[in-house]
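Hi V.,

You were right to ask for the full record rather than a summary. Here it is.
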Amino acid sequence: MVTDLVVISAHAADYVWRSGGTIASYVQQGKTVQIVALSYGERGESAELWKHGGTLDSIKAHRREESQRAADILGAPILFLDWDDYPLQFSNDRVLCLVEYLREWRPSTILTHGPHDPFNPDHEATAVAVHRASVLSIAHGVLPILPVCKQPALFGFEHHQSELSQFHPDIIVDITDVFEKKRAAMECFQTQQHLIEYYAMRAAIRGNHARRISGKGTYRYAEAFVRSYPLVGGELR
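Predicted structure:
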């Protein structure tokens, strides 16, 4: 079975901030989506829980519950791998684990972190590892007992501090019809309340860009991504 979109998130909330609208839009269109959270963000993205006396186990449980509720709102299943964060590390075995999942899901498109994130090394490490796994997933000599994938399209999220991370969008996705679902999913993360309005504002800014570039006045909210490979076709578009 081919999965339309596989979203691989370094931490439990990244997929919501950066692509929650796109996920909800795919689901609304009847497309298949699978989310993967590599870690809970328990060390690097849960400061409020630590300040209030949380333990490692309790913080992981709290973050998992938040993330599961958010995924349910967006309408997509989520797999938690609990690989620990800060630092999130990728052995060869972990990369091959991702290869196995990709060969099971056979994605048309993979969405993950983009390169050059100076503020979060876990995001950069994830970008590199997912790219490696996507390339290995189409190689016949790698895990030959499993059928290879076709080359999936690979896209990277917009970074939190895009202007400081060399982020230049290659594609802007309209999320106007599903923005309220994205907001509801963001509000699940009470551990990171300070990001909710930031990403709502970012979606409005990208909506402004979408209107200007497309000429479609109905675009109000959008998300931006970078491509890893050129668009291929018979015409310029």
